[in-house]
Design a protein that fits this description.
The chain has 609 residues and is mostly helical. The protein has 24 helices and 9 strands.
Length: 609
């Protein structure tokens, strides 16, 4: 069993070594003979047999496209040893190049996790055993076994908390650490059972039965409370997100994914479901290892060119490394899509931009001429945006914050923000007074408002800052043109900046501070002086207008009309099946800006109808 467990996690060693030491010291001599020890070693090696499949699969799959799905170079002895020791991530390190939270924080997290998983009450029973063994106040039938379990637990927790280098302030990574607590908890379960028995051993049968019933009820209650959140039955978030990644891509596209969230779901969808198998999905993180880039050169040299050795790994710096800009330079004639650049790699920024297409980015050269109308670009992401909307509008309490499902939902919101920010950034490529510049800013504002109006959106200071800048630009243009919509855009600018300043000063990002008619100059924290001037200008203008209720409603309707051309982002899909561009599904210009009833009051809803 221990050999088999080694095929899953190295941390089992933290249980094997103390237990083996206890066996060597306390078991009868007839169980410690050389022949017995040889048997133990043989059985442990039998448990390691799954590693033999890594060698077999490496040989069998070599030269086939499915070779890309196999981790490491297990065809050689050195590669197999590197795989066994997890050298790429660091032996006895959970992850490379990260700073953990420290021994004390990890230890506290261990205790809290076990207490929550056991309903807090059952945490007392292992302490009963610990006290009884230290004071020798209670005799246990299998005392040496309990001592072994106690030593294994303490040694595991101490070593793991010392070596764990994952920060606990990141929910997803905190969930990774929590999964490693299950192994030592097996020892605590044994100690807890012994402590529970010792607590009622000399009591009446009725009392013993009652205590056991209460303990079982606590465990069942904890399980029933958590079952709805850990149940994955009917959950399609990963499927929806994967489709949002792959379906908008053109035929035979090359997608340079980034990390687990974009790489492994797409691989599963292509391999199991046969979804968009024409798309070549490569993981940028794995391209940091020479054995992976070697496979790309052997199998896909006609689809993606990589620098020749000695440059063998995709990394920002290093003697044998090449950045993303070199890949783009070697593939000028191809359109590459990325899930984002590797952390620290900014080499591509000199000559390229990332243009969001659904949940991915198209790498475009800065010399490329953009269309003056943003609708064609936005239409490429239409179907993907609708799928992302299903992901991001999943209930916030449907999954724990430390799950991949919660990460998917957060990423879906971030994608909507990136699309809006890209539209706003692209508007800057035109002269300020150019009509195309205003159109791109209006498109960006439509996306910002659509996200802002959804009560389930993730508030963040970056979103509110960018939304405020966009709303101010549109408001300024409409104000110069004397359009009625300028008043609504001005109020929207103030609302965005009110939310932004709440985040910047440490208050609740989800609430607005103050009102439009009593707003005062506030400290924007990290905001620049320019943002303060923008906010002050919009606030003073809105305060000076003093529009009445009906006038405000008319201004809101005017803004709705101005932005209605870009309402396909949240329009029902069945309304958009009659138009197409280049054979792809297009948008419908009919549709209301405030399609979501929750985003507007009943009075305005009646007027719009």
């Amino acid at each position: 069993l221990f050999g088999l467990a080694m095929c899953n996690q190295h941390t089992i060693v933290l249980m094997i070594l103390p237990l083996a030491s206890m066996i060597a010291l306390f078991v009868p001599k007839d169980l410690r003979t050389p022949s017995r020890i040889a048997q133990y070693v043989v059985f442990a090696l039998v448990g390691l047999l799954p590693y033999s499949y890594t060698v077999i699969s490496c040989i069998r799959l070599r030269g086939q496209t499915t070779e890309m799905l196999s981790w490491g170079d297990c065809c050689s002895a050195s590669g197999l040893l590197r795989h066994f020791l997890r050298s790429e991530y660091g032996t006895f390190n959970l992850i490379s190049s990260l700073e953990g939270s420290g021994f004390v924080s990890n230890l506290a997290f261990f205790g809290i996790t076990f207490a929550e998983d056991s309903g807090w009450v059952l945490l007392a029973f292992p302490l009963v055993v610990l006290k009884a063994r230290l004071l020798r106040s209670v005799e246990f039938q299998n005392a040496k076994l309990l001592d072994a379990a106690l030593v294994v637990f303490l040694s595991y927790v101490a070593f793991f908390c010392w070596r764990c280098n994952i920060p606990l302030d990141v929910p997803l990574l905190r969930g990774v650490v929590a999964r490693f607590t299950m192994q030592p908890f097996a020892c605590l379960a044994l100690l807890g059972a012994a402590g529970l028995h010792a607590s009622v051993a000399h009591r009446s049968k009725l009392l013993r039965f009652g205590v056991f019933v209460i303990a079982a009820a606590i465990l069942i209650g904890v399980a029933m409370q958590r079952a709805p959140k850990v149940c994955m039955r009917g959950v399609r978030l990963t499927d929806q997100y994967t489709r949002a990644l792959l379906e908008p891509l053109p035929q035979s596209a090359v997608l340079l994914a980034k990390g687990d969230l974009t790489c492994y779901p797409t691989r599963a969808a292509q391999t199991v479901q046969g979804l968009r198998k024409d798309v070549l999905v490569l993981d940028q993180e794995t391209m940091g290892f020479p054995w992976y880039t070697d496979r790309i050169r052997r199998l896909y040299s006609n689809r993606l060119k990589l620098p020749s050795p000695p440059l063998v790994r995709l990394r920002p710096v290093g003697q044998d490394a090449f950045p993303l800009s070199k890949v783009l330079a070697l593939n000028k004639e191809k359109t590459l899509f990325v899930g984002g650049a590797k952390d620290g790699d900014t080499s591509w920024e000199a000559k390229h931009d990332m243009l969001p297409v659904g949940a991915t980015h198209k790498m475009v050269r800065r010399t490329q001429v953009l269309p003056q109308d943003p609708v064609q670009y936005m239409n490429e992401s239409l179907h993907s945006i609708r799928l992302l909307r299903e992901v991001r509008n999943s209930l916030p309490n449907q999954h724990y914050a430390d799950t991949w499902e919660a990460m998917l939902r957060e990423e879906a919101w971030a994608t909507s923000h990136r699309i809006a920010l890209s539209l706003l950034t692209r508007a800057g490529s035109f002269p300020t007074n150019h009509k195309a510049s205003l159109e791109w800013r209006k498109a960006a504002l439509a996306v910002f408002v659509e996200v802002f109006n959804d009560p389930l959106h993730f508030p963040s200071w970056q979103f509110y800052k960018n939304a405020g800048i966009c709303a101010e630009a549109v408001w300024s243009a409409w104000r110069m043109q004397g359009l009625p919509a300028a008043g609504a855009a001005g109020r929207l600018t103030v609302r965005f900046f009110n939310r932004y300043q709440a985040c910047a000063t440490g208050r609740d990002c989800g609430t607005e501070t103050g009102s439009l008619h009593s707003a005062q100059d506030r400290d924007f924290g990290s905001a620049r002086e320019a943002l303060q001037q923008i906010f002050k200008k919009a606030r003073d203008d809105v305060n000076g207008v003093g529009a009445t209720g009906p006038e405000r409603d008319a201004q809101e309707i005017a803004m709705t009309s101005e932005l209605s051309r870009y309402t396909f982002l949240h329009a029902p899909e069945e309304n958009s099946k009659d138009a197409s561009i280049n054979g792809k599904q297009s948008y419908s210009t009919s549709g209301e800006f405030f399609e979501n009833d929750r985003a507007m009051d009943s009075r305005l809803q009646k007027q719009l109808k």
